[in-house]
Amino acid sequence: MSDYERIAKMIRYLDQFQGEQPSLQDLASFMGMSPHHLHRLFSSWASITPKDFLQCLTAAKARELLREGRSVLDTSLEVGLSGPGRLHDLCVKLEGATPGEIKSGGAEWEIRVGFADTPFGEACVAESPRGICHLSFLEGGDREVAWEKIRGEWPAAALAKDDERAAELLAGVFSGEPGKGLRALVRGTDFQVRVWQALIQVPAGSLVSYGQLAAAIGKPEASRAVGTAVGRNELAFLIPCHRVIRETGVIGNYRWGRDRKRAIIAWENGMRERSHASC
């Protein structure tokens, strides 16, 4: 069992018994490990303590992060949403595919597709000549489904398997190396692309609501349409749709699994706290 699988198992346990408010000892006993080993697991996975992890899963903490997210988006409104976004210390340049590129289905393109492990399980990433065009977490390790999804998006492109390049790309995405830039290519309407551009302005460790996101793009009445755009994101983690939750602080669903969404939120909090501690 990988570290992420252990984390997901603990999240399911905490959800099941949340009314009883399990202690760290209860959690360690459930996992069949000592409190010391539980602490080591969280330290190695996200530089976070078990206590901080439990706090990250509460609605109160989520509402606190929502308040921070509102401030971030207010600032983004002042400077505009067209610039590159931040992911840890990553610079993400997001571009929409042209109508011609979509119509041609990626004709004359070679798209490199590969699979590699991440802190949240195995992922599939595809890189086109214009940047990363697909990033998804695998459910049940089904690589063929991910491959065919990319084939459906770019039917005329030549797909080449390249796990080595995938590992390199994913290491960059999840390590957040300072100064490392990534290009991303998306397929969507102008409205959807604007929603995704707003999302990459939200830094790791902050959360926003659908209403806040709608207001950020100048469409405060369009929360439902924003939710649809968020749900159609094809670039897991890179376009951080996991940072969008309900106004009440309820985490809500996630295309790649609710447990994974909660794990990512906790992991990013750990990364942020470690970054602040080193300053």
From TrEMBL:
SMART domains: HTH_ARAC. It catalyses: a 6-O-methyl-2'-deoxyguanosine in DNA + L-cysteinyl-[protein] = S-methyl-L-cysteinyl-[protein] + a 2'-deoxyguanosine in DNA; a 4-O-methyl-thymidine in DNA + L-cysteinyl-[protein] = a thymidine in DNA + S-methyl-L-cysteinyl-[protein]. Its EC number is 2.1.1.63. It is an enzyme of class 2 (transferase). Pfam families: DNA_binding_1, HTH_18. One of its GO terms (biological process) is methylation. Keywords: DNA damage, DNA repair, Methyltransferase, Transcription, Transcription regulation, Transferase. Residues 8-105 form the HTH araC/xylS-type domain. InterPro entries: Homeodomain-like_sf (IPR009057), HTH_AraC (IPR018060), MethylDNA_cys_MeTrfase_AS (IPR001497), MethylDNA_cys_MeTrfase_DNA-bd (IPR014048), MethylDNA_cys_MeTrfase_DNAb (IPR036217), MGMT_N_sf (IPR036631), WH-like_DNA-bd_sf (IPR036388). GO terms for molecular function: DNA-binding transcription factor activity; methylated-DNA-[protein]-cysteine S-methyltransferase activity; sequence-specific DNA binding. Belongs to the MGMT family. This is methylated-DNA--[protein]-cysteine S-methyltransferase. The lineage of its organism: Bacteria, Pseudomonadati, Verrucomicrobiota, Opitutia, Puniceicoccales.
